[in-house]
What does this fold into?
Amino acid sequence: MDSFTPVTALIGGLLIGLASAVLWLGNGRIAGISGIFGQLLPPARTVVWRLVFLAALVAATFLTAQLLPGLGPKPELVSAPPSSDIPTPIWIAIAGLLTGFGTKIGNGCTSGHGICGLARLSRRSFVAVGIFFAVAVLTVTVTGVV
Amino acid sequence: MKQSLRPPYLATAALSGALFGAGLYIAQMTNPLKVLRFLDFTAIPTGGWDPSLALVMGGGLIVMLAAVQYGKRMERPLFNGTFHQPEYNHIDLPLVAGSALFGIGWGMSGICPGPAISLLAFLPENIWVFLCAMFVGSYLGSFVMKRIPREVVPA
It folds into this structure.
């Protein structure tokens, strides 16, 4: 388990929890990224705070990476598994489409259901989290993408 | 002035987004390969499994559980009239199918929506392909959901 990074994982997790807490107690909003992203589209009514949130997210990722460059390698997207015969951009496009579509009709992702929903003890979120984790593990096993 | 355009509301959104981005990077959840090494349970017997993501979720949950409990004793959030809490509580087909489809996408790429946005800080190859596809997928999803009344789709 050379790649296990328990200290930074826990610190990062606590910060993400704090981010969710700030948005919930300050603005009464759920820090679900798929929801914040997905509701930028018309007929969205409250676009400004969502753009501010997402811009701050990208800026903080950039600044933290400048301050702490040693935490990990420069992130790269995966290549399609050679056995799939699918070009990598198509593989990535399919993954993105499924992520966007699935989180929209399922009303949430790893943050909205996974952190906020479970913390609110939402029945729907327990079901969603169980399903997307199980299916993701199965997908990695079947595709051998790692 | 609309509540959601007032400076304290927008400052709170900025603070939350910043904490979220810093947390994602420090936890290295911005690295799709690290996420996939968690999802790859086949590596458990060989010792190559990376349990980090479980600690990220656990850390986030502990703080948010406390915040939700604290929020129950507040009449309303600091800068808004009401907590925007989903009231709908049924386990229905869109929830189940949507979560399963998202699971496939997540397992194919190691990218969920938060890290997808945060990757704009690094602009790795193909990130625009993922983000544009995610945007299109989300739009198609809202199009489909508008045509399915929630009451008639029990699981």
